[in-house]
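Quick one, T. Sequence first:
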Amino acid sequence: MDAANDVEFQDVAVTDLALQEFTPDPVRSMPLVVAVRRAIGAVREETRALRANPTADLKIFEYGKSQALLDLSRARTLVPPAFYSEELREDIAEFKEVLDENVGLLQLHMNAVTEVVGMMSRTMIDYESDGTYQAPFPERAR
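Structure tokens:
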């Protein structure tokens, strides 16, 4: 009888442990909450700077974003998804929105730089050319 009770007790203990492992835990989520919020701040700073001054030097934001990534990586190993609190899930959703806005703005700037580099390259080629291999008609405006 004692062995049967032990097995029954172990099954209940394992079930309780399994339920605990899949229960959101705000306290255990806190390191990741802090890291996500720090990352949101770093990305928002860069986005604000880009909006205020499109020619802003982004190197000053590189360290902050790198540090935020390191913090996120470390905190992520401490907090398994089963423990993610509702607060953390909301912060992660906000982080995704902030990143999407930042990526869109950076892409816009990269496209502008690519266009300027293309124009400069064409100008340099035209300047150095003697016209031997030039097309008989000018290119159509784009």
